[in-house]
Design brief:
This is Protein kinase, cAMP-dependent, catalytic, beta a. The protein is about 30% helix and about 15% strand. The chain is of the alpha+beta class. It has 2 domains: about 130 residues, 2-Layer Sandwich (Phosphorylase Kinase, domain 1), CATH 3.30.200.20; about 180 residues, Transferase(Phosphotransferase), domain 1. About 10% of the residues have low confidence.
Length: about 375
């Protein structure tokens, strides 16, 4: 059993900082032999934007820190060479020395997945390269911030707004699943808003290509599917469960399963009992019953019709799926942006230079990145 926690941003009462380890009781988190084999099998080469030169840190001018974690930061940068001179990007910088084995696997998997997929509602990777001490992923800069921030300000969305966002997300998940990829970390924090009000899925650190089933206990407590908690092994159906949780949270302002302690959250999830707010429409409640379905043989998205059971549901009866995919529908919300480099929709962090390490760290693990 492997345990990986995706912490939720705090700011609403039901959020928890507790580890998934509470569920495992006396079992310590481990990274099993299978993952070590998978780690050695990964073969990565540099990724370069079409028509551009091979990337390196010197081609980018630091503008601002957009986010930070325990082993890296995300910067707003401007390209200062090549055909895309002047283009703004988000630069994800990871320090090799602070990455544990599982984090290296996740970084390389994230890079591989983003190179392979191409979808209007999935963040695009433009460059991937490394120095002796750091790994760099150059991604789209989406200046609208994340959906969690907007949801925190508005508390809840109208059902029409939820339909707009969830239609995009359903299409993105279906695209990932067509490659055998499970996303495994769906939540508002991982959905970025572009300048036109459309969303893009980001942060593929927990995503995994799976044939058959996998057993890793990972994700965000409120969004875990029952089969993950029960260690039964799971497949892409967990993403459709998480989609149901997200729909509920966006429409209600809180998730369907929450409590003070993780173990209490898991008990509620496994029970499968969901209470709906009085303002939910009958069609919305029906869709959620089919997504938040403990029985995998009845869960929408996991049946023979796949995503079409969701797309053809009454709740989406007024949704033009082609127009959504082609981004022809006017978004319900346009982020306030004062210009291309506006970062007002992101938190402020202490500024610093991007320093390139002069000592070689983990060179073997990141060979040919």
């Amino acid at each position: 059993l492997r345990i990986m926690l995706a912490p939720r941003s705090l700011g609403r009462d039901y959020r928890t900082q507790n580890s998934l380890g509470h569920l495992a009781a006396n079992r310590s988190p481990t990274w099993d032999v299978q993952d070590d084999v998978h780690f050695r099998e990964i073969n990565i080469t540099n990724h370069v934007k079409e028509g551009s030169e091979k990337g390196d840190p010197g081609q980018f001018e630091l503008r601002k820190v957009l986010g930070q974690g325990s082993f890296g930061k995300v910067f707003l940068v401007k390209k200062i060479t090549g055909p895309d001179d002047g283009q703004l990007y988000a630069m994800k910088v990871l320090k090799k020395a602070t990455l544990k084995v599982r984090d290296r696997v996740r970084t390389k998997m994230e890079r591989d997945i983003l190179v392979e997929v191409n979808h209007p509602f999935i963040v695009k990777l433009h460059y991937a390269f490394q120095t002796e001490g750091k790994v760099y992923l150059i991604l789209d800069f989406l200046r609208g911030g994340d959906l969690f921030t907007r949801l925190s300000k508005e508390v809840m969305f109208t059902e029409e707004d939820v339909k707009f966002y969830l239609a995009e997300l359903a299409l993105a998940l279906d695209h990932l699943h067509s490659f055998g990829i499970i996303y495994r970390d769906l939540k508002p924090e991982n959905l970025l808003i572009d300048q036109h009000g459309y969303i893009q899925v980001t942060d593929f650190g927990f995503a995994k290509r799976v044939k058959g089933r996998t057993w890793t206990l990972c994700g965000t407590p409120e969004y875990l599917a029952p089969e993950i908690i029960l260690s039964k092994g799971y497949n892409k159906a967990v993403d459709w469960w998480a989609l149901g949780v997200l729909i509920y949270e966006m429409a209600a302002g809180y998730p369907p399963f929450f409590a003070d302690q993780p173990i209490q959250i898991y008990e509620k999830i496994v029970s499968g009992k969901v209470r709906f707010p009085s303002h939910f429409s009958s069609d919305l409640k029906d869709l959620l019953r089919n997504l938040l379905q403990v029985d995998l043989t009845k869960r929408f998205g996991n049946l023979k019709n796949g995503v079409n059971d969701i797309k053809n549901h009454k709740w989406f009866s007024t949704t033009d799926w082609i127009a959504i995919y082609e981004r022809k529908i006017e978004a319900p919300f346009l982020p306030k942006c004062r210009g291309p480099g506006d970062t007002s929709n992101f938190d402020d962090y202490e500024e610093e230079d991007i320093r390139v390490s002069q000592t070689e760290k983990c060179a073997k693990e990141f060979a040919d990145f």
